[in-house]
Amino acid sequence: MTDTAAAAAKPRPNPNAPTPQEVLSVEHYTDRLFKFRITRPATFRFRSGEFVMIGLPKEDGKPLLRAYSIASPSWDEELEFFSIKVPDGPLTSRLQKIQPGDHVLLGKKPTGTLVNDALTPAKRLWMFSTGTGFAPFASVIRDPDTYTKFDEVIVTHTCRLEEELAYSIETVAGAKADPLVGEEATAQLRHFTSCTRTPDYPVQGRITTLIENGGLCEAMGVPPLSAENDRVMICGSMEMIQDTKALLEARGFEEGSNAKPADFVIEKAFAG
Ligand code: A2P
Predict the structure, then answer these.
(1) Cα(136)–Cα(144) distance, rounded to whole angstroms?
(2) In what order do the strands lie in the sheet with 78-84?
(3) CA 113 / ligand 1 centre spacing (Å)
């Protein structure tokens, strides 16, 4: 074989292959939920609200990757993720054991529709989330563009148990104290929380129930949801997304995309 032929036969490195990034911190909230932060390569660009593939190498050396919403805003020097722990989940059973100094794999192509660009302008932005579905909104509420585009921003988080709300409570407080967006967030951002399986939590019920019975808008002191005044991002389980989407469509909302911005956008960030 000539040198040229040998060079041609050698497999070329894949420019889109995930890269190892160092784990900087890990915080466990419950036996089902944790947050971790990793290094961000200088070349890694994304829009607040997007997701990316994250993972670990398998025993055979091949990567095991899942889509994860990036929970940090696009200006942050590090990347933050909020994850479920599934005891027998192929990835999260191992990912939940990471420690600072370990490495995780980070994909190179962030993408997604839970971005300001996919919504047309309006008075108010709602972000409806359940469980780890809060993650992309942890990014969006820390982005100054959100407060330029919308006068009012309301992020909702519904979990089974009160202790599962800890990450969103901490992140909203962090946004309000942040040197970059703190002033806007304090003036324009509100947080609505409810629980479905902690009986003494002050606000009970699924977000879908609270939209349907008017309890949500009443609690926030705003008029009923309308395509004229409100824009919506939805993130939770597949069923929650479909049920919430149906409620919006029944109220005349149109689904938007990056190619055709409109009244609401949906996404699902699942990890197994
Ligand atoms: P519930 O306790 O009534 O099932 P999970 O941890 O299973 O993803 O659930 C997170 C939260 O989302 C829970 O409060 C759960 O309520 C709620 N939820 C589950 N399915 C739906 C749905 N189809 N629509 C709205 N909320 C839902």
Answers:
(1) 15
(2) 63-69, 51-57, 103-106, 19-28, 33-39, 78-84
(3) 22
* Residues with a CB atom less than 6 Å from ligand 1: 130-131, 158-160, 196-197, 206-208, 236-237, 239-240, 243
Q: Is the C-alpha dihedral spanning 17, 23, 27, 28 positive or negative? A: positive
185/77 same-domain check: no
Indicate which residue's Cα is closest to atom 23 of ligand 1: 240
Give the integer Cα–Cα distance in Å for 233 and 145. 15
The number of C-alpha atoms within 13 Å of 7 and in the hemisphere containing its C-beta is 3
Of 58, 76, 106, the residue at which a domain comes to its end is 106
Cα radius of gyration (the chain): 20
Mean pLDDT of the chain: 94
Which atom of ligand 1 lies at the shortest distance from residue 237's CA? 8
CATH code at position 35:
2.40.30.10
pLDDT for 148-194, tens place per residue? 999 999 999 999 999 999 999 999 999 999 999 999 999 999 999 99
Atom of ligand 1 nearest to the CA of 239: 23
Write down the pTM of the prediction. Answer: 0.94
- H/E run at residue 188: helix 182-188
The reply to whether 8 falls in a domain is no
CA of 91 to the centre of ligand 1 (A): 22
pLDDT value at 1 more than 60:
no
